[in-house]
Design brief:
The protein is built from 15 helices and 11 strands. By secondary structure, the chain is α/β, with parallel strands linked by helices. It has one domain: Aldolase class I (TIM Barrel, Alpha-Beta Barrel).
């Protein structure tokens, strides 16, 4: 049965559910197939994205997130412009083709202009040898266009779940947390011309395998260019924490998330897929394992060390004490151990995006 499914060119929801339920030998076959497809369509190479966690100030109150506005125990910060540029310069000097600017969600003129300043400075610094990915939440179309025109070429906006009922269980029911607005923002990003990415959490309370299969189909229908997703890890200072008894074990969430990476690689063969930090939180070999079975992007954290401990989205996030240089060397080690090749001084654009553009 699994051999027949894995050779298909189009996949039904039932096919995806079967693959996500794979165990033992079937799971090994799934991972072998996804690794083959990765090698054929994007190559055994890994693009580095230097991650800069710009700010943990957020206007939203998502029930799963440690930096939600309602968490009064968070020490809020915003990295200064010169510190951001210093991290970007490290990326440039060490052969990164891209950086990611990530932050809490804020809609304000001040925040919009700060991102514009960062983009302008990076353009001046790199002329333009660094691609910039933004992950700064929902914004107006006008703001997205300003950022795009200023040099941001990629945008990651995670949907977290494509099930609107589940979305409303993990977010407050108000205008700031509107499922349809989230979808519309993704459509706007694509319309403007961004390389557009999204992603989901895997192993949420109330989530089913059917939900995850629909997430894969949602990403395929949305025709995304890149994806960042990983296992859900709870934070003790969030409303969703009270449902911890409903969760799969961390190991089960981890294994299910790896299968999601593998299935997405099989279904969307030439997109960029990130190996995310959440994998490493559960298993020290987690990021490497994700690279081995389909991921092709790694994001060393270039946030200055003094800020890292306060960008605490979930419990036990690793690497808070790591220096930028240590993160860089660790990334190389992971990629080598996964028997992949680091590609330096290259943008690493999504092949799926480039092909569609042609």
């Amino acid at each position: 049965m699994i051999n027949k499914i894995l050779q298909k060119s189009k996949f039904t929801k039932d096919d995806i559910v079967f693959l996500l339920n794979a165990k033992d030998d079937d799971e090994k076959k799934l991972f072998l197939r996804s690794a083959e497809i990765k090698e054929k369509h994007v190559g055994n190479k890994v693009w580095l994205r230097g991650l800069i966690e710009l700010s943990n100030i957020c206007s939203k109150n998502c029930y799963y997130c440690g930096i939600r506005k309602g968490n009064k125990n968070v020490c809020r910060y915003e990295i200064q412009l010169d510190e951001v540029i210093e991290s970007a310069k490290f990326a440039l000097d060490n052969g990164f083709g891209s950086i990611v600017i990530q932050s809490g969600e804020i809609q304000s003129t001040k925040f919009t202009n700060k991102i514009l300043d960062i983009l302008q400075k990076i353009q001046q610094l790199s002329s333009p040898k660094l691609r910039v990915t933004l992950s700064c939440g929902e914004q107006t179309e006008e703001t997205y266009r300003k950022w795009f025109d200023a040099g941001a070429e990629r945008y990651l906006l995670r949907i977290e779940t494509s099930n609107s009922d589940l979305y409303h269980k993990i977010h407050p029911n108000d205008s700031l947390h509107d499922f349809d607005k989230r979808i519309e923002a993704l459509n706007v990003l694509k319309k403007i011309g961004f390389q557009t990415g999204t992603g989901v959490m895997i192993g949420l309370p109330f989530q089913t395998i059917d939900d995850l299969a629909n997430d894969i189909l949602f990403m395929q229908k949305m025709d995304i260019h890149m994806c960042g997703m990983g296992p859900y890890i709870e934070h003790s200072e969030t409303p969703l924490f009270k449902y911890s008894s409903l969760l799969l074990s961390l190991r089960e969430r981890y294994e299910l998330a790896l299968k999601m990476i593998a299935v997405l690689r099989i279904v969307m063969k030439d997109i960029n897929i990130a190996s995310t930090t959440a994998f490493q939180t559960i298993d020290s070999e987690g990021k490497k394992s994700a690279l081995e079975i389909g991921a092709n992007v790694l994001m060393p954290n270039l946030t200055p060390a003094k800020y890292k401990e306060n960008y605490n989205l979930y419990n036990n996030k690793p690497g808070k004490e790591n220096t930028i240089s240590y993160e860089f060397n660790l990334a190389f080690e992971m990629i080598r151990n996964a028997e992949n090749i680091v590609r330096l001084n290259e943008y690493g654009d999504s092949i799926h995006y480039s092909t569609k553009k042609e």
